[in-house]
Amino acid sequence: MSRPTVDDLDVVHKLHADPRVWTHLPQGRHTSLEESRSMLQGWITDWDHEGIGYWIIRDLNEAFVGVGGIRMRHGCWNIYYRLAPEQWHHGYATEIARKALSTAHSLHPNMPVIINVLERNTASVRVAAHLGLLLVARDEDGSAANAERCIYADRPVEQSLVDAFLS
Hints:
Largest sheet: 6 strands, mixed
Helix content: 25-40%
Structural class: alpha+beta
Shape: globular
Radius of gyration: 15 Å
Number of helices: 5
Distance between the termini: 29 Å
Order of helices and strands: HHEEEHEHEEH
């Protein structure tokens, strides 16, 4: 797990432009290199300002696995991960999310940690369960063809925090 750099643009774009990665949210797929560049720059800025953010993940052989980690949003930590399809079903998502959760707890133990998943993404729902996270909110995600969105957190949270997170 390493801090992202501008040199990671190609792998980040390839990942986020791959339609297989967006099965549950097709409209999230990146259709331009500029879209990926902007996202990557946001991650780099997080590291510059917060000293933490999403990681670039490679295996022991330096093969690209995906991206993931934590990012501060609206007074809470957000866990995020996205894996290259050839890396699915190897436990990486749970491992990344577990490391993100422990990092968040070590940096700011009083700040809630949230993960936002679509209910139909059963693999991500299982990751939240493996982490012991609580389902704290559900709503319809209009941007995801009216799919049910589930918000999990490491502790009970106020509805106002959930609302801010979703805004």
